[in-house]
Please model this.
Amino acid sequence: MIRKITIAIDGYSSTGKSTVAKQLADYLDYIYVDTGAMYRAVTYFAMQNGFISTTHFDKEGLIASLDEISIGFEKAQPFETADVLLNGINIESEIRTLEVSSFVSPIATVPEVRRKLVYQQQILGKLKGVAMDGRDIGTVVFPDAELKIFMNASATQRAQRRYEELLKRGDKVLYQEVYDNVVERDRIDTTREDSPLIMAEDAIEIDNSEMNLEDQFHIILQLAKDRIAGRI
Ligand code: DC
Model:
């Protein structure tokens, strides 16, 4: 039987972490877990229940309600990527807006939120054979992951990619607001006290500013194959 490993893909927002994690999971027949979607689902819950807005953040109220939040994943079709569910309701489209992006980083600073989600992520990846992307996968969730990738790209490249994605969805956004959101999320994600975004010591850094998706996939797939075979 082929050995299964844990693949942790961390990095800055909109670096294409989920794209490559999905490609790896499909190729290797692994489970793919988008942990950003889990933080986004909690954010959507907080917005819907009046715990966060542009003028206030009721952290204590959110913490007291965490037991009411159940996050799951569901595939609409067997070969499609799983959508995120909040209390059984598919909110995949709702969590991808710029509004959710603007509240998610403050929500992700709350240690109680992180504890709940990290626990669930560790269960999802317990049996290995998982490609998980996020900010703290190689440092906190799976510090023993066999392969850790840390992805980076210039802020302008990342904002441009995200802007195009939002336009494709039909969202009315300006490039400048997307750029500002990317920079602000970087700031909050790297400076928060609990599990800040940092590169694990044993991670391999990939800057994909000038790399196409196919080249990037083949480089990371080769690393994964080497780890599976125990070559490095
Ligand atoms: O990957 P993403 O852009 O969908 O993530 C949204 C936010 O969630 C990100 O700005 C920070 C937070 N996040 C986190 O703190 N830890 C993770 N493992 C994943 C995401």
